[in-house]
Amino acid sequence: MKFENKAIIITGAAGGIGKEIAHKLAAEGAQLTLVDVNEVALKAVVEELGLTADRVLTVKTDVSKEADVKNYVDQTVEKFGRIDGFVNNAGVEGPAKAIEDITEADFDFVYGINVKGAFYGIKYVLPIMKKQQAGSIVNTASVAGLIGSPQMMLYNSSKHALMGINKVAALEAAPFNVRVNTVNPGVINTQMMRQIESKVAPGAADAAQSAYAEAVPMKRYGEPQEVANLVVFLLSDEASYISSSSYTVDGGLYNV
User: 168 CB contacts (<8 Å, ≥6 apart)?
Assistant: First the structure.
């Protein structure tokens, strides 16, 4: 029970990757704050986990709003007394458009969640961890934060921004024994990828999926639990000397 009596926040907890992280942490004894904009889906996750009320907190949140983020952090401290881990996982893929077709509303939507939401989370979690002199933050970026993809400028650039936030946060946190890392999933078998496939190839989503899988050296999509395995390791004390690092979970796709 590596996480017994440890409090972990997961944003985007109702999504494919977030839900798998919650399952693994629950099995390891963690106390969980599950954050998502979809309250119905959050309740379904709690039912799946089967946790008693003393071990779980759900908070409906729009992470693009600073007050909402502060609220889930405050509620976590009030319920559990501390924050040992933070999985900064909420994100959206945004529209698939050429750069010249992107609107201000498109930009604000994607950056509001993927950049501002991630920043707000770190802003409010980090002081608590610094005071504790302990903690681990794992940011869910993407291989899109390492490369470019046609029609996906907003998603790509927002994940590049998160990689930059991660580097600075890790340096500021290190003197306080707080670690900050990113995981960078490739094509993972989640609802987000179903949406991306449909957007980049309208009417030919199956062909897009096949093409994406073929581009991966392992010739398949990854599964959410394969990302969750790495996230849980980085949260654990077994990763005690790992910080300011980025790890791809992509079947060899990003090969430099």
Answer: none
d(CA 19, CA 192): 13
- Among the listed residues 171, 151, 149, 147, the one whose alpha carbon sits nearest the alpha carbon of residue 160: 147
The answer to whether the CB of 7 falls within 8 A of the CB of 34 is no
CA 240, CA 222: separation in Å to the nearest integer? 26
Q: Confirm whether 124 is a catalytic residue.
A: no
Q: Which tens digit of pLDDT belongs to each residue from 80-97?
A: 999 999 999 999 999 999
Does the residue 216 lie in any domain?
A: no
Whether this prediction's pTM lies above 0.85 is answered by: yes
Q: Tens of pLDDT along 2-12? A: 999 999 999 99
Residues whose CB is less than 8 angstroms from the CB of residue 78 and which lie 6 or more positions away in sequence, other chains included: none
The residue type of 230 is L
* Residue in 72, 120, 124, 155 annotated catalytic: 155
Q: Does the residue 87 lie in any domain?
A: yes
Q: Is position 153 within any domain?
A: yes
Q: What does the DSSP assignment read for 155-171?
A: HHHHHHHHHHHHHHHHH
Residues 6+ positions from 132 with CB-CB distance below 8 Å: 82, 83, 84
Range of the domain at 60: 7-186+223-249
Here the CATH number for the domain that contains residue 41 is 3.40.50.720
In a domain, 146, yes or no: yes
Domain count, the chain: 1
